[in-house]
Every structure is written in structure tokens, then in C-alpha cells.
Amino acid sequence: MNRRHPVGVLVVSLAIAACGATGALAGCDDNPVGRICDLGTATPQTGEVVVASPSLDCVTRTCLRVPKTRELPPGSTYPEGNSGLCTAECTADSECDRVPESPCITGFTCGIAVTVGPFCCRKFCICKDYIVTPDSGELGTPKACDPGLAENACCNLSGRVNSATYPLCKS
Fold first, then answer.
1. Distance (Å, rounded) from C-alpha 11 to C-alpha 6?
2. How far apart are CA 116 and CA 79, in angstroms?
3. Distance CA 90, CA 38 (A)
4. Strands, E, within the chain: which ranges?
5. Of the candidates 132, 107, 119, 128, the residue with the CA atom closest to the CA atom of residue 31
6. How far apart, in whole angstroms, are the C-alpha atoms of residue 86 and residue 92?
């Protein structure tokens, strides 16, 4: 017996495959951020920023935990233990698509989370519930991420990769 599957089943299957199971439920956003994720085995120290990748909990495979530097707004919760929030690289706040189940209430801003290591000077979606943001609403660029300063050796800055001046920045 030869059965035909309804076209609707095919469309739903393709949507899930294209967006991932969570993306289909959340509207297939480009940078779904804010879901609780596992940072690994070590619990971060107070005041420590942690970027964990690959994080299989996240569509973008990147989990971020920033220190809480302000009082949480009503309804917000800060990740406990070795947890963070799924994040994504960005160039503007509008690229940070908050998932509905996120404990981050006020949304996300695009900013530099760390100035050392493999993720130095890269912009990520950061929960505004946890950090103090300037009146402008935009996080500034740390001095350590100014490519015009020769002492800044972050390999993610322009002019660093494969430069004799920065021997650790090989591609």
C-alpha cells in the first residue's frame, strides 16, 4: 500500500530542518540568544567573564556569562553555578534576538565581553539585566581593543593576523 504524506507534514519538517527545532518554535531568528546554557565543569569566579564554545545548548554554539554589576530588574534571574546564556556575535543590538524563555527581561546589547583569549575584542549579545549600560545605551570599545594601539595584541584586531609584529597571530 502506497500512502501519501500530507504536504503540511513536509512543510513543517522542512521548517524544523532549516531553523533547528528551537528556531522553528521561536520564529527562526538569526541570532537566538538568552537560553540558559552550560559553561562546562568549572564554576566561574565572581567578577569573571566566561565565553564557552562549542556549547551544544546553543544554536550559535556559544555560551556567555558576564558578572552581575547591577541590581536585577523585576522578573529577571541570574544564571547559577556553571551556567550562562546563549549568545551570538553581533555588530548591533538589533541582531540579538531574545528567545521567549530567556531569564533576561530587558533584552540584549551588542558589546565586547572579553579583551583576552581567542574571543578577545569580538562583540557578543550581552544581557542588559546584568550590566550597567551608559546613558547612550551602547557599550564603548575598551582601550585594549583599539587597533590603532600597537601594544594591543588581540589577534582579532585588524592588521594582527600573519603580521611579523604579532608572531602569535598566525592563521
1. 9
2. 23
3. 21
4. 32-33, 36-38, 50-52, 63-65, 83-86, 97-98, 108-112, 123-127
5. 107
6. 17
Q: Are residues 151 and 73 in the same domain?
A: no
Rounded Cα gap, residues 35 and 107, in angstroms = 12
Q: What is the grid cell recorded at 47?
A: 567578577
Question: Distance between CA 21 and CA 86 in Å, rounded?
Answer: 16
Same domain for 83 and 165, yes or no, is no
Task: Give the range of the structural domain holding residue 156, as residue numbers without chain letter.
Answer: 145-171
In a domain, 16, yes or no: no
| pLDDT tens for the chain, residues 1 to 171 | 444 444 433 333 333 333 444 344 434 546 799 999 999 877 888 889 999 999 999 999 999 999 999 999 999 999 999 999 999 999 999 999 999 999 999 999 999 999 999 999 999 999 999 999 888 878 999 999 999 999 999 999 999 999 999 999 988
C-alpha cell belonging to residue 35: 537560553
Total domain count, the chain: 2
pLDDT for position 30? 65
**46 and 64 belong to one structural domain:** yes
